[in-house]
Amino acid sequence: MTDPQGVLQPSPERDDEVKDQQEDVVDAKPSRSNRFSFLGRHLRLVSWYFPSLLWRKKKDGEEERQDNANISYRVVSPAFQYKMNYKKLGRCVIINNKNFDAQTAAEENHNDCACFACIFLSHGEEGFIYGTDGPMCIKKLTTMFRGDRCKTLVGKPKLFFIQACRGSEFDEGIQADSANHSLETDASPRHKIPIEADFLFAYSTVPGYYSWRNPGNGSWFVQALCQVLSTYGRQLEVLQMLTRVNYLVANNFESWSEDSRFCAKKQIPCVVSMLTKELYF
Question: Which InterPro entries does the record match to this protein (predicted)?
Answer without folding.
Answer: Caspase-like_dom_sf, Caspase_cys_AS, Caspase_his_AS, Pept_C14, Pept_C14_caspase, Pept_C14_p10, Pept_C14_p20, Pept_C14A
